[in-house]
Design goal:
The complex is a heterodimer.
Chain A: H1 2-30, E1 40-42, H2 44-51, E2 84-86, H3 101-133
Antiparallel strand pairs in A: 1-2
Helix pairs in contact in A: 1-2, 1-3
Chain B: H1 4-29, E1 45-53, E2 63-72, E3 79-81, E4 93-95, H2 101-133
Antiparallel strand pairs in B: 1-2, 3-4
Helix pairs in contact in B: 1-2
Classes of the chains: A mainly alpha, B alpha+beta.
Chain lengths: ~140, ~140
Amino acid sequence: MNRLTNSLDFQAQALTLRAERQRLIASNIANADTPGYVARDMDFASALREATGTQAAGSTMTGDTATARGHIPIGTGSTSELGLKYAAPSQTNLDSNTVDMDRERASFVDNSVKYEATLRFINTDVRTMLDAMKSPSQG
Amino acid sequence: MSMMKIFDISGSAVSSQSQRLNVVASNLANVDTVAGPDGKAYKAREVNFQTVLMNTPDGSPGAGVRVAGVTENQAPGRKVHDPANPSADADGYVTYSNVNAVDEMVNMISASRSYQNNIEVMNTAKTLLMKTLQMGQG
């Protein structure tokens, strides 16, 4: 079972994190005119590494926490500790708002494209799995 | 569905920006208002934005906007010497509102750009959500 869903689990974590980042960027864009607001972003690579356990991407999650043979491994992934970072202001601003609209828009588009890519990976995984389940006679 | 929060976040920004646009509209409408018999001319208004936390139930951060209040610009109104005007004071000066039309136009452009930005964020979030709904179907 684990071998079947391993890649799917990984992509699901990635998708969740992409959605989180999308929300962060939406917050930044929403607060582009709020005085004193400090823009935030996440370090996606380290957040994903943390969410899927410290092992290499796509590998088995936290097998060491299983204390009995029948235990189902659970990822250590907790989306509440995302390692949020504060964006350094690129230009000084009189109202100390650090949202850089150009950067935010670029990140937003970048993140949506990668979200769609992850979705596509999941869809392909599902299709591969379904193909593997079919009997030869079904073509 | 943490993506759903995007609609709350961007929605709050859109409504705040539209309130700002409303204030700009009333300022621009009153740019040539003269002080009434009470001697008080229209004062330019401006909105103050404030971040409001919109965390998801699991504690993931999100930040919306709200209008904390509308303040009146206390700068003195423009005075024009026009003794023939019925609203002129004893010295022949007419007090106009303190609205600066250039400031208001800049404010208007900024508000409408921010409005558009947030609408676009919502559109993208909607597209992504629709695609997520079709996950595994092909």
